[in-house]
Amino acid sequence: MINTVFDILTIRTDFPILNRKVNGYPLVYLDNAATSQTPQQVIDVIVDYYRNYNANIHRGVHALSQEATDKYEEARLKIQKHFNAAKSHEIIFTSGTTQGINLVANSFSTFLKPGDELLVSAMEHHSNIVPWQMLCERTGAILKVIPMNEDGVLLMDTFKDLLSNRTKLVFCNHVSNALGTINPIQEIIEESHTIGAAVLIDGAQAAPHIKADMQKLDVDFYTVSAHKMCGPTGVGILYGKEEWLNKMPPYQGGGEMIAEVTFEKTTYADLPHKFEAGTPNICGGIAFGAALDYMNAIGFDSIASYEQELLQYATQKLTMIEGLRIYGTAKEKTSVISFNIQGIHPYDIGTILDKLGIAVRTGHHCAQPVMDFYHIPGTVRASFNFYNTKEEVDVLVEGVRRAKKMLL
Ligand SMILES: *Cc1c(COP(=O)(O)O)cnc(C)c1O
């Protein structure tokens, strides 16, 4: 396994995809905020599942089904431990952050009446906006926005003014995928709780960089996608406090989530199964556990400090390019840099970078309100993970300079 010292070359050998070429150039993968790459250790777990014990869980008496069930439940325990949830049944497997949010947005509607208020931050991903708008349409609740400033920092005084005894739920991302801002979620949770509002934190962008502690945060709901933290796509978790999950009705009906079904009345299974209708992504859940093992073996403190080094290095180098503006200049940031060059469309820069083997994201990053705030159509976003290097930052900077020369 990996040394305790941060050995970037050894780490990179764990990721076979980093060796490939794109358009004749070595791949420089800087789209980690959209999805992260998968280490061989996790790929092995996926292959092992399908080769050796693929079976449906919680149902069969046969050996394969037992093995798959044990491994799947073991993964739940790993996830519980990683996020320091008090109970393993507070970890609900989902298909990802989007489903986790939709689950809460659906089931929480039983607690809402017309005129109740929901607070959303100005820097949310669409998946933490649209489900709540749909909820408001169904219930007559009202959505209010916590504004931000030019640096991409939430205005906490306005947030406190917006809180009232009508506020039932507050939702905010832990880290903004468009700007990289790390939001003061501990304060948001504490303030919201003083007036009895529940809080959902979208942890999709934070979880790859910050180890969040559910009990310390005292958060009500927290959502994560495995594919942003070295795991596969199509799997994630919703953490929910037991008392909320017990009070909330199920999200979807089907197999696995019932205790007893008759045509007169159906009773629901206990947590977590009440919220896990149908056959889940079994292999994905097990691989998610393996991804956490992999990242924890490196250590989140080492990961965070190395990524901060990359962030500072890249920020310093990019700001030396004349006409380049970085969006998202909060003091507390993860390794995400959103930028534009005056007079050039972000898409054009992205296209030229791709020709040079450099993968970045261009566009609104599923956060159109953030782009509207800055009056821009989108940005170029370079997002770094612990397996990126300073040499790759240099390649990016050189690529951006070349693009600028070609396009201006
Ligand atoms: C990626 C992301 C999502 C959506 O995650 P899915 O895996 O697509 O469900 C939501 N919020 C933030 C902040 C994200 O970065």
TrEMBL record:
<dbReference type="GO" id="GO:0006534">
    <property type="term" value="P:cysteine metabolic process"/>
</dbReference>
<dbReference type="InterPro" id="IPR000192">
    <property type="entry name" value="Aminotrans_V_dom"/>
</dbReference>
<dbReference type="InterPro" id="IPR020578">
    <property type="entry name" value="Aminotrans_V_PyrdxlP_BS"/>
</dbReference>
<dbReference type="Pfam" id="PF00266">
    <property type="entry name" value="Aminotran_5"/>
</dbReference>
<keyword id="KW-0808">Transferase</keyword>
<dbReference type="GO" id="GO:0030170">
    <property type="term" value="F:pyridoxal phosphate binding"/>
</dbReference>
<protein>
    <recommendedName>
        <fullName>Cysteine desulfurase</fullName>
        <ecNumber>2.8.1.7</ecNumber>
    </recommendedName>
</protein>
<keyword id="KW-0663">Pyridoxal phosphate</keyword>
<comment type="similarity">
    <text>Belongs to the class-V pyridoxal-phosphate-dependent aminotransferase family. Csd subfamily.</text>
</comment>
<dbReference type="InterPro" id="IPR010970">
    <property type="entry name" value="Cys_dSase_SufS"/>
</dbReference>
<dbReference type="InterPro" id="IPR015424">
    <property type="entry name" value="PyrdxlP-dep_Trfase"/>
</dbReference>
<dbReference type="InterPro" id="IPR016454">
    <property type="entry name" value="Cysteine_dSase"/>
</dbReference>
<comment type="function">
    <text>Catalyzes the removal of elemental sulfur and selenium atoms from L-cysteine, L-cystine, L-selenocysteine, and L-selenocystine to produce L-alanine.</text>
</comment>
<feature type="domain" description="Aminotransferase class V">
    <location>
        <begin position="28"/>
        <end position="396"/>
    </location>
</feature>
<dbReference type="GO" id="GO:0031071">
    <property type="term" value="F:cysteine desulfurase activity"/>
</dbReference>
<dbReference type="InterPro" id="IPR015421">
    <property type="entry name" value="PyrdxlP-dep_Trfase_major"/>
</dbReference>
<dbReference type="InterPro" id="IPR015422">
    <property type="entry name" value="PyrdxlP-dep_Trfase_small"/>
</dbReference>
